[in-house]
From TrEMBL:
The keyword Thylakoid does not apply. Transmembrane segments: none annotated. The keyword Signal applies. This is Tripartite tricarboxylate transporter substrate binding protein. It comes from the Bacteria. It holds the Pfam family TctC. SUPFAM superfamilies: Periplasmic binding protein-like II. Residues 1-20 form the signal peptide. Belongs to the UPF0065 (bug) family. Keywords: Signal.
Amino acid sequence: MLRRALFAGTAAAVATAAHAQEGFPARPVTMTVAFPPGGQADVVGRPVAAALERIWRVAVPIVNRPGAAGEIGNAAVARAAPDGYTLLMALSSMTLLPEAARVNGRQPAYTPEMLAPIALFSADPTVLVVPTASPVRTIEDFIADAKARPGQVSYSSAGNYSALHVPMAQLSQAAGLDMLHVPFQGGGPALTALLGGQVQCLASGPGPIAPHVRSGALRPLATWGRTRLAGFEDVPTLIEKGFPDCEFYIWVGLFAPAGTPAPVIARIRESSRLVAAEAEFQRAMAASGNTLDFRDGDAFATFYAEDAARLVRVVRALGKIE
């Protein structure tokens, strides 16, 4: 009788899990982007959401919740009901913002452990760009100009400790530069500021800047990768130029609130694999200038943990920002 009871209990649990996976989603699933439209997370998130809509046949609206370099939107999802109906398309800065809060004497609005990694869609190094009207044509020109005009060369970002700020802070430290940081609420406004002549340079993921490089509006000078970036093969890395510590990747990944049932996570992960394999999605990623780098399961978890540990070290080295 005991064996029968145990078998019945196990069978019931398996049936419940299977039902949860098969029944999800039964209504629209919100995908939060913690930045305004036009930034890297938004540029990747929109084709992912469109593909999920085709797979699930339910609406997957994008909700942009900018503020505090992404902390507000990240925290909103971290504290949302763990049912799979609120997802986060996050940037790499998600892992460093809680440490930045601690460095500045604040209680973090969330911790990375409050968010469960599901799938990585892209992981590209940031790219340093200037307007083509700028007399600066190479990274050597850029460094010489910034050294000659301390405090006058300005760059925009998505906020303090954001994925657009940290790489520029790395370069400033490595090259001994004093530059003017002008933070905005997201990568979209930061790019608009550069295109509008409000600032003189920007470190961005390749997706948002690629159309402007192709159109001739922006000139890439260097990247923060270990190797040269696909599509930017003529652009040197900062490591090549003698700055071994200037390595930064702006990755975009899908997360759910921690505690979301395992069958629901499995369903979203399975659907994410289908998204990555879909020809229409691949075309959309290529058109937006993003390199598809899909990882899930242990592969994403390992990448995520290693990158998070490195970014925490970077934040501690940057220290408190007044």
